[in-house]
Amino acid sequence: MDPKEVLDELKTILVTRLKFDPRRAADMTFETALPKGVEGSIGLDSLDFIELSIAIEERFGIVMDESQDLAEHFQSFDTLCGFIAARTEAA
Amino acid sequence: MARVVVTGVGVVTGAVTGGREQVRAFLASSGAPALRIPGSALLGLVDEGEARRLSRVCQLSVAAARIALADAGLGPDPCPGLGLVIGAEFGDLRSTIEFVNGYLCRGPGGLSALLFPNTVMNTMAATTAIAVAARGLSLTLNAPTVAGELAIARAVAAVRSGRVEAVLAGGVDEIDPFLAELLVEAGATSETRGEGAGFVLLESLDGAHARGARVLGEIAGVAWRALRARPYRVGRGTDSRAIAAALDEAGAAPGDLGRVWISASGDGPRDRWEQALLEASLRPARPPQTALGSRVGRHSGLGALAVAASVLDSSSRGPALVHAIARGGSHVAMVVRSHAAPLSGHPQ
Amino acid sequence: MRRVAVTGLGAVSPFGAGVKAYWNGLSAGVCAIRPVTLVETEGFRCRIAAEVPDGIGGSPRRTRADRFALAAAREALEDAGLSCAERAEAALVVGAVGGGMLEAEVWYWERFRGGGPTSRRAPRSTLPFSHADVLGNVLGLEGPRETLVTACSSGAASLALAADLVADGVVTTAIAGGVDALTRICFMGFNALKLLGPEPCRPFDRDRRGMSIGEGAAFVVLEELEKARARGARIYAALAGHGLTTDAYHVTSPHPDGEGMVRAMKAALERARLAPAAVGYANAHGTATPQNDRIEARAIREVFGAGRLLISSTKSMIGHTMAAAGALEAVATILALVHEVVPPTANLATTDPDVAFDCVPRVAREAAIEYAISNSFGFGGQNVTLLFGRA
């Protein structure tokens, strides 16, 4: 799956599970930051990240180990798409 | 013991959304019952993040709380010890069903972490406390029919004993199509149910004076007790210790009362029980009665609307009694004095 | 303000019916967390919980939670030896979350899978208030009646509110507690939040991996101290103070500095007019999630200083019993004062270096304590501290 496809899947998750407005999701790019408190981010908090990780596990068939610090992978769509691509290839 | 006064009002209901002016206009008007809240009612009252993350019943609660604080002349960061007491009968049933359906449709992967906290009935209090920075005690009281009145009575007791300076007190519930279906299946009586949220801001008289707040009225007596009844049934007893205790605390006699705001809502046996109770407790006085449920449907936001109506009712000759009783026997009585000029609509 | 005494105790725990079974289990450091039998666990990472064993009694027509509540409340009332007249005036405050959801789920699952209404009637006793109406009716309690929902601190908050009613002179006697049966929603939800560990929970351990769920009920009788003395009641302890605060920070995460927890503990001390040094034991909220235990230990340290205080987590033995937890843990705290024994933290091998306390690993400790606190924190940042003193 190429990164653009992964991004589109993530946007779908943001709309269906995290209840983002579809128009808002359409404007998101690889550069868009995710965590709350980061300038220009879409404002995700800890609970949003749990929801997002459940959805990623379900959609991409990978396991997110929450005892590892995953924060660096959840910085932007770019880092997250890279992480998912690496994990799906490894599987 | 502190005197407890009402300094702010905020309601979101089918027929009226707003603070003291909107409630006053609603009381002066008449109209067909409006049980549901239009989607547009919340515009401007919840922000973009809240609209995404909060369930509808939480949004109703947040919106009414914000209106009440603004009505009381308090800003977004009101006071460090602000308390919150919310009554609810059903809570966030809509989110609970959505959460469970996720599992039933798709297994463990269909479960939503975002929805789960809403399955616990304090979710409205949790989200509202965050929205209005209420860092004192925050309580959710669950009861059939009387939850909103009970929450206010409880909050009055907390202010009176000095445990908290100021409290937002009231309640919230929503109508959900599934809930309506479930109630029929469970054999619940036909009743005019509505939806909405309502809060009053309560504070000590001294606190209100110190910050120069305009006092709308005083809650002079509160009591809540249970009458003997089986769960989901009405009882036969009419000896209300709650009404007597609330009148006593207010130093009022039945004959002083200018009006009784009752909890009648079309549940025949319960409505008749309430009448028998009031008759026996107030005899020979028969103050005029008003059931707000006939205008906006019965829901947990009505306690605040009844207290708001009591303090804003300038036509009343004396203090009002706010009364509510539930199947199962819980009942609440509050004696409320308006500070509006008697027999005139002029502001103080 | 009137002083408040504890004069009756009742418990239904994963150790079985009764306060005696509960204390025997706690003081022996037994972990009652086992594979789940009550609900389906297929596909979940965590498949264990502390269930209440059979033999609690009560009509099978009542919900499991109502049976727990009735057994525990009855035990507490009988223990206190209240007359019918005293009961009729007594306040009833119940901390509840799940209500009769376990039974309602069975009905809903069938309804969902069948595609429409089922042959059986929708259950009525689903909502949290059902317990109070059942208890009030069966036990003849006609004073103020309240059902309190503050998530995982509900059981503790119910004791605090009942104590207020006694302190303010609204009633002279109150029965207060909490109850929850295991439910699918709770089990699934905490799994979804990834807060449950696959092994029995290990509070304050360096290698803790999350909480375990439990179920049960506990009730206590609270009385105005002078009235209890006058009638010659057995006084277990004084409920000397309490604090209720709200983080107003996040719906599921505690404030990172434990700011609301600190305020709750300080408020309890202030209300009891005690210095921190007077307190010898803290029955911690201690859920065994990485976040809770670290932040709670930090908050306790801020209030009481490092070291001196003994702390332990009852959840290491009976799991997190949700709305019952605050009440069951209050009973554990009271019994620790009565027996001069601090129950241990089971499953604790290596204390987390971030936890600057003696967490009483695995084996109970003899200690004559004058004052002890019980902490309970719930979703929505709902913090409750109860402070008990030796009778």
Question: Explain this structure to me?
Answer:
The complex is a heterotrimer of chains A (91), B (348) and C (391). In chain A, helix 1 packs across helix 4 (77-90). Chain A has a single domain (3-90), classed as ACP-like (Non-ribosomal Peptide Synthetase Peptidyl Carrier Protein, Chain A). The mean pLDDT of chain A is 91. Chain A is an all-alpha fold. In chain A, 53% of the residues lie in helices and 0% in strands. With 348 residues, chain B is an alpha/beta fold. Chain B starts with a strand and ends in a 10-residue tail after the last strand. Chain C has helices at residues 19-27, 64-80, 84-89, 101-114, 129-139, 154-167, 184-192, 225-230, 259-272, 290-304, 315-318, 325-339; strands spanning 4-13, 16-17, 34-35, 48-50, 91-96, 145-148, 173-180, 213-214, 216-224, 237-246, 279-283, 307-312, 341-342, 357-358, 365-366, 371-378, 382-390. The mean pLDDT of chain C is 96. Chain C has a single domain, classed as Thiolase/Chalcone synthase (Peroxisomal Thiolase, Chain A, domain 1, 3-Layer(aba) Sandwich). In chain C, helix 2 crosses helix 5, helix 6 packs across helix 12 (325-339) and helix 9 (259-272) packs across helix 10 (290-304). In chain C, strands 1, 2, 5, 6, 7, 9, 10, 11, 12, 14, 16 and 17 form a twelve-stranded mixed sheet that branches. Chain C has 391 residues and is of the alpha/beta class. Chains in contact: A-B, A-C, B-C. At the B-C interface, helix 4, helix 5, strand 4, helix 6 and strand 7 of B face helix 4, helix 5, strand 6, helix 6 and helix 7 of C.
